[in-house]
Amino acid sequence: MNLACQDLLRGPKEDYLRIGAPLYEAAITCDWEAAKHILLCKPELVRYSITENGETALHIAATAKGPKLKEQFVKNLVSLMTMGDLEIVDKNHNTALYSAAAAGNTGVVKILAQRNRDLLTIPGAKGTMMPLYAAAWFGHYEVAKYLIDNSQGLHDDGWTDANRGWLLEKCAENDMLDIALQTVRMYPELGRSTMILTILAGKPHVFSKTKSSSVKRTFNSVSAFIGLKAGAPENESEALQLLRIIWEDIMKLPKNHIDHILRGPQDSGHSGSKRFFQTLQLKNLIFKHLDKLEKEIQNTKEGPEQVLQLKNLVIKHVVNIYDETQRYINENNTPEEDQPRQMQKFIFDYIMKIHDKTQNSITSEDQAQDLKGLISKHINTMRDETNAQKTYSSRVMFIAAETGNTNFLTELIRQNSDLIWKVNDDNQTIFHIAVKHRHEDIYYLLYELGSMKDMVTPIRDLDENNMLHLAAKSTKRKNLEDVSGAALQMQQELLWFKEVWSMIPPSYRERKNKDGQTPHELFTKEHQHLITKGEKWMKETASQCMVVAALIATIVFAAAFTVPGGYNQNDGIPMFKRNPTFVAFVVADAISLILSSASILTFLSILTSRYAERDFERSLPMKLMFGLAALFLSIGTMMVTFGVSFFVLYHKQTKWIPILISVFAITPAILYVLLQYHLLIDVYRSTFRGKYLFKPTKRVLFYENPRFQRMFPRSNCDQTNNMNNQP
To answer: Which of 104, 228, 376, 461 is the most exposed place for a label (fewest CB within 10 A)?
Structure first.
């Protein structure tokens, strides 16, 4: 290991203040004139450490941020150093190139690599991280791209399957997908031993299709027509190409190996997850009560009341355990499907079994000792089963389903259709998860399963909830954040429930879960708060819009009797009755009055609605949409009325006056529409397009593959069949 000389730091303090400190300042500011003056007097200082961490002037300059002249400074400094000097490491075993890669200084990395290529193979961070991995770790794409292009296919000394796998994971985590793709093309087997599938499963955004140029599209079409290999299909993302290479390699493994990869690592404390520690704390809280129960049971005195004391002790601790665990769950805001809550349910179900057996099985006072033994036996059995329970919260398929990563799932299922039957720790399929998190693109895949969907939808989880129960549960707030207002959110929830209701077999629509609730009862309970919020939002919106509509109606009504130019005093007829612009004024004013009145009546009907659950599906949104549309049109026609009135009064040379006024008059109307039109669009989309929300327009899971058709043309198959049929 080539360490920097420590003489300057170990020597007299005056020497460091006179030489070392100025050299450090010159290096960090990339002031070559100051550094050159020092190095010409003492050229050996290029090998000296000028910090307590063992860094040389080159280390400092390589990590400098900001100075524009750092690359020139590094070039000048390197010219004074030998090949061995460039390999000097600090106390963390970092070379200057490694430090530059970690800092993202691409120019410095290129200068050092061109001077000494061996620097690319010297690991840093105590010998654990290659420079390329450091660049990927800190998200420096340009540095990472340069280093992998000059890494000789990751065959250099220092590269192993382990750190190649680390590199692949970090590139995927930081969306450096072209580098990750380059890596797996060289080493496709890396996907077998890394968390790359788990990482990709949680990144649905990287699977969005990329736009291709018209030239590229034409080239691919011609290549496909003449049978040439044209690379990746049009608009195929790098993430999808990466996934395909990894998954095709994994599919060569035995089934149990594939299942192990898809299942992911078992939950443990090493993962540091909040879920795990909450589960551990909850388990310790329950076991603390059980220890106390067991101790008190052993201390009960023999006598005619002993059996009653034992039963009362069990009842008391069951109540205490439930109260404290429920308080812990609520304080930590634990979602229904999280691991701590599942652990609570599992243990509490077992405790209730102990309670039932102790209350019903022993009635004789002579059997008090048997009762003690029964309680202790059940407590010990529950401990063993709880400790033996294994959970896997990193299952690849279910991470993808939870995040809505449809492209990821379809690619896996196309090559292994049995994956649709995989269940998680709660006995839920990916389609159950899709319903729970409201991912319609994944739910669409059920339509492609044919009659098999009737075997998937009735599957019940550990709480005996079927798919319709999951649709009945209120979804997380973030899944509805793109929907305007609580009323439209309620509409989306109703559409989901109605869709799953039509999908599930009729005999399961009224099945009860462990809590004794049918899906519809659960839906009503879970969405009561959303109905209340939806009613409040709808009334507030209608009230505010009705005020605007009433103001418009008042204005245009008054304008109808104060026409431009006034009336003829003899017959009471308007002076400009034959003027076309006056006719336009009258018509626009009448339309505005009619529309604003219609808007007022519509919003009034919203205020007086009953707000039943089913009203949110179509009735209320339709009223809101009609009211908003009428209001927008009444504002527009009111502005037309205002602008046209000036054209009636001003002619010829003064015509620029009404034109200018009309331009400025339309600005408030445009501004109002721009600020509020999204609400009208959301209502329209939710109401009219909602019925098409669950109707897929094309097949995405199983479709005709042109490449397969080129490999096995129908004509060739027909010829083969004819030959086989010949006598």
So the answer is: 228
The interaxial angle of helices 519-526 and 485-503, nearest 10 deg, is: 170
CA-CA distance, 102 to 94, in Å (whole number)? 10
Distances (CA, A) of 594 to 553, 599, 631, 637: 8, 9, 10, 10
Residues 463 and 514 in one domain: yes
Of 223-237, 255-269, 294-308, the least confident:
223-237
- Residues 32 and 68: beta-carbon distance below 8 Å: no
- Look at residue 439 and tell me if it is in a domain: no
The SS3 of residue 102 is helix
Q: What gap in Å lies between CA 390 and CA 346, rounded to an integer?
A: 13
Using a CB cutoff of 8 Å and minimum separation of 24, what contacts does 597-602 make?
597/549, 597/553, 598/626, 598/630, 599/545, 599/546, 599/549, 599/627, 599/628, 599/630, 599/631, 599/634, 600/546, 600/549, 600/550, 600/553, 602/626, 602/627, 602/630
What tokens does 109 get? Answer: 């990395």
Residue 129 lies in a domain: yes
For residues 315 and 460, membership in a common domain is answered with no
For 539-562, the pLDDT digits (tens) are: 999 999 999 999 999 988 888 777
The reply to whether the predicted model has a pTM over 0.85 is: no
Instruction: Encode pLDDT of 371-411 as tens digits.
Output: 666 666 666 666 665 554 566 666 899 999 999 999 999 99
